[in-house]
Amino acid sequence: MFYDLNVPWAPTSPDLPRTKTDCQQTVGYNVIALSHIHSGKFSQSQLNPIPENPFPKHPNLQILRRITVILDDPSQNHRLAALTSAYDIVALRPTNEKLLLQACKELDCDLISVDLSQRMSYHFKHKTVGLAIQRGIFLEINYSASINDITARRNLIGNAAALIRATRGRGIIISSEARKALGVRGPFDVINLATLWGLSQDKGREAVDGLPRLVVAQAKLKRTSFRGVIDVVVNEPPQGNKRRAEDEAGPSDQPKPEAKSEDNTKTGAPPKLSKKARKALARASKS
How confident is the model over 248-272, as pLDDT tens digits? Predict the structure, then answer.
């Protein structure tokens, strides 16, 4: 299964149905996530403006709902706990190095999506992005902005290579962020792009297949459990029932104890002689 976890959503976008159809039929994605990009304070009345079924259901396509929160104020309360229950995926987009460190270190989210098509004012550090990977948070690379813009393409190649070096190739997923159908590329084209940035073929496939599946599974786990903890109930009989069953069993049902070695004088068996004593006894009997 192939995933595209970032297809921007707008209520009045005329290109969105065509983009969805192109992802589904032309290039062969199985799961896409409609992304609502938000900046600033949230409305108290409606956290998720994306309808549950924005398009007719298709047996070969699953549609998820995602929010991408732009971090531009470190003191702002983004109500991430409420967003986790309202969306399938919660992504953060920090705008500077300080906010990137905050997102990697302490903020609760599923993805960290940095706009790599722009010139970065800081360098990616393994110590910073490694905090996110240790917490099970993935980093996202979006490619569609670089298709028709030479400057954005140059920035994306350099920034993506720097991010891959900082993460050592771990925890990277690749999405389109395509606002039009022409901005979507097939999964195998994306894998070839990943090799251009410094990922191997195997890790490039994981970036559009295995790791996005893990993102969706972890996000679902957060919504259906308390802080990611699952209560497992093991159906084992209590110890009292086991003791009661042993008491009610008859003598024939009781397990027989293992025979213990007893003294030969108590059992009446002849004493065992050593090899030297047996030879002496044989010589005495012959004489």
Answer: 555 555 555 554 444 444 444 555 6
Query: How many angstroms from the chain centroid is the CA of residue 223?
Result: 14
Measured in degrees and rounded to the nearest 5, phi and psi for residue 24 equal -80, -50
Around Cβ 121, how many Cβ atoms within 10 Å? 8
Which one-letter amino acid corresponds to residue 19?
A: T
Number of domains in the chain: 1
The DSSP-derived string for 20-58 is HHIIIIIS--SEEEEEEEE-SPPPSS-S--S-S-SS--B
Model confidence at 164: pLDDT above 90:
yes
| Domain assignment of residue 219, yes or no | yes
Residue 53 lies in a domain: no
For residues 191 and 208, the answer to whether their CB atoms sit within 8 Å is yes
**pTM of the complete model beyond 0.70:** yes
CA distances from 148 to 104, 183, 191, 259 (A): 31, 9, 19, 86
Pairing of strands 89-94, 62-71: parallel
User: What range defines the domain where residue 14 resides?
Assistant: 3-39+71-224
